[in-house]
Amino acid sequence: MNKQWKDIIIEVIQELGGEAWLQDIYEKVEEKYPEKLTKGYDKTIRDCIQRFSSDSTKYEARGDIFYSVKGLGRGIWGLNDYQNEENKNLNFTNDDSVFPEGKKKLAQHIRRERNPALINRAKELFKLKEGRVYCQSCGFDFESKYGDIGKDFIEGHHIIPISELKEGSKTRVQDIILLCSNCHSMVHRKRPWLRVDEIKTLMK
Asked: Which residue ranges does the record assign to the HNH nuclease domain (predicted)?
């Protein structure tokens, strides 16, 4: 059966756990569908994902199947809540499937450098002002929930995406918002990224 690229990509990402680096998607396609490996197949995969993702400017509104896990340009794509017709009535209650994991791979990526001192300084100043560290969106406090292991734990969100910064750009502490892991992930679910006030509205 001659599968469409959309269905192949869905199948591959499902096998990779619902989210995957583009490089891992390419390798899985090479393994499962060698007959599809025409010249430029990697670009075909990228274009197909973007046509079926509302995160992309190439979205064709024919089904919002894929989403950019960490924002466009990061190279990680996931599946939205999607099931094809043949899978809707499957019963997974007694599924005894096992999956091999742990294989070592060499992955090389070019990424924008982050400065950990910036996030640490943002935490310090926030704690001096507020007396504790908590999510500026939902108010979650890791230390209150998890005890000592959660002390001062929080993620720093760049208001201006690092992918949009020019080399040598300077970021101020005021450009950082402290978010819990859940709110940080939700901010990155759409492109352009959701604002913190929009996340707060969604939680009401």
From this structure: 122-185
Burial class (CB in 10 A: 0-12, 13-18, 19+), 182: middle
In a domain, 50, yes or no: yes
Are the CB atoms for 146 and 184 separated by under 8 Å?
no
pTM of the model: 0.48
**Tell me: the pLDDT tens digits for 123-160?**
999 999 999 999 999 999 999 999 999 999 999 888 87
Torsion-angle region of residue 20: left (phi > 0), alpha (psi -120 to 50) or beta? beta
* Residue among 155, 126, 129, 153 nearest 142 (CA): 153
Whether the Cβ atoms of residue 26 and residue 45 lie closer than 8 Å to each other: yes
Q: Indicate the residue type of 145.
A: K
In which band, very low, low, confident or very high, does the pLDDT at 188 lie, cut at 50, 70 and 90? confident
Secondary structure element (H or E) that encloses residue 78, with its range: strand 76-79
What is the distance between the alpha carbons of residues 72 and 8, in angstroms, rounded to a whole number? 21
Domain that holds residue 31: 5-85
